[in-house]
Write a structure and sequence with these properties.
Elements lengths: L1 E5 L8 E4 L10 E10 L1 H7 L13 E2 L3 E8 L11 E4 L2 E2 L6 H4 L12 E3 L3 E2 L6 E4 L4 E3 L11 H18 L8 E5 L3 H11 L4 E5 L7 H6 L4 E3 L12 E4 L4 H10 L5 E4 L8 H14 L3 E4 L5 H13 L2 H5 L2 E5 L4 H5 L7 E5 L4
Parallel strand pairs: 8-9, 12-13, 12-15, 13-14, 15-16, 16-17, 18-19
Antiparallel strand pairs: 1-2, 1-4, 3-5, 3-10, 3-19, 5-6, 6-11, 7-8
Helix pairs in contact: 3-4, 3-8, 6-7
The chain binds beta-D-glucopyranose.
Length: 348
């Protein structure tokens, strides 16, 4: 079969190449790949900045935003041939730490977790892949290709869960919410916040293309420019750019008793000023700035429900480009109007 592989930490080594059939030790469920979403993490791995090959190997199969069709459910599985499934990304550490021991691998404390397509286990950008039945999430057949949005939805489902848990530290009536960055994570955050009766604002650099209308169609307000120029102080900010200067502005702009959830890591910024602002905001305004990564099974289940309930026509507009596996390089190059680019391995 063929797979998109890379030698982690070595830029320019990604190729679409012949690769052995998936190892039975990777799971008893055999799946035919339908599509795999591309995200910033994949771009970082291909640029040689992130990623780890499986122990004893030099190359890693890329891809963690999967969608596939069951070819063989194997034994001990409630899945059936033809079911659409998405693979959970992270596996608990082998020690395990207390969080991994209770199934909260997203909160792993010793860093020895593994992640498909990212850290030490092959990903899903291969014509066929295998998975353990307990890590295969069945998606509603009517979602079709939109099932590829499940993984990003899990990331935001966890992040928002954490925001609301943290909010319970005091009497809290959040009303105004800002999302910075209108990529897939930011737009899915806006979608989930807009069903909760908040006043939702989304800020992004793009002045044209599909993003402004997607935001407006949620009943939210779209902004460009600086966070500091907004004429309101958000109670909650979901930061999805990872850009140091945007994070610094968010810290200044957050209302008292507010919460900032950081979901992205990327370009740094003026670290000294950020730290001083952060201390002032956190102490004098009781603010919380926290980070959120990955998702556990509870979030995967909820995200499946969230995706099923969402407006399909709106979701469809998030997938702005489908590329063939042989053109994976084009899929990795960000174009101005891109939101979610997927690599499509087979028809749905
Ligand atoms: C993935 C997460 C993963 C994180 C860090 C993200 O792109 O969506 O599942 O935990 O990268 O590796």
């Amino acid at each position: 079969m063929k797979a998109i592989t890379v030698e982690p930490k070595k830029p320019g080594t990604a190729r679409y190449e012949d690769f052995p059939e998936p190892d039975e030790r990777e799971g008893s469920v055999l799946v035919e790949a339908v599509a795999v979403g591309v995200c910033g993490t994949d771009v970082e791995i291909v640029e040689g900045k992130y990623g780890w090959a499986p122990p004893g190997k030099t190359r890693l199969v890329l891809g963690h935003e999967s969608l596939g069709r069951v070819i063989d459910p194997g034994l001990n599985s409630s899945l059936k041939k033809g079911d659409l499934v998405v693979g959970i990304v992270r596996r608990p550490d082998p020690v395990p730490c207390a969080n991994c021991a209770v199934g909260e691998w997203d909160m792993c404390t010793n860093g020895q977790y593994t992640e498909r397509g990212i850290k030490e286990i092959h990903g899903f950008m291969s014509q066929r892949w295998r998975i353990e039945p307990e890590y295969a999430i069945k998606v509603d057949a009517s979602l079709g290709l939109l099932g590829v949005l499940l993984e990003p939805m899990t990331v935001i489902t966890k992040a928002l869960e954490q925001v609301f848990i943290i909010g319970q530290r005091a009497y809290w009536e959040p009303r105004v919410v800002l999302v910075t960055g209108a990529g897939p994570i930011g737009l899915l955050a806006a979608l989930r916040l807009s069903v909760r009766n908040f006043e939702v604002h989304v800020l992004d650099r793009a002045e044209s293309g599909p993003k402004p209308q997607l935001v407006r169609d949620l009943g939210a307000t779209y902004h460009t420019g600086s966070v500091l120029d907004l004429d309101f102080n958000p109670d909650v900010i979901v930061e999805c750019t990872g850009v140091g200067s945007v994070i610094a502005d968010c810290i200044q702009k957050l209302d008292s008793g507010g919460i900032i959830c950081l979901t992205g890591v990327g370009a740094g910024g003026a670290a000294g000023k950020v730290v001083a602002d952060m201390a002032a905001a956190a102490v004098l305004k009781n603010n919380v700035i926290f980070g959120s990564v990955n998702a556990n099974k509870r979030h995967w289940y909820r995200a499946g429900e969230n995706l099923k309930q969402a407006d399909r026509n709106w979701l469809r507009r998030l997938i702005t480009r489908c590329e063939k596996p042989e053109n994976f390089q084009q899929a990795l190059e960000r174009q101005p109007d891109d939101i979610k680019v997927v690599i499509q391995f087979s028809e749905i």
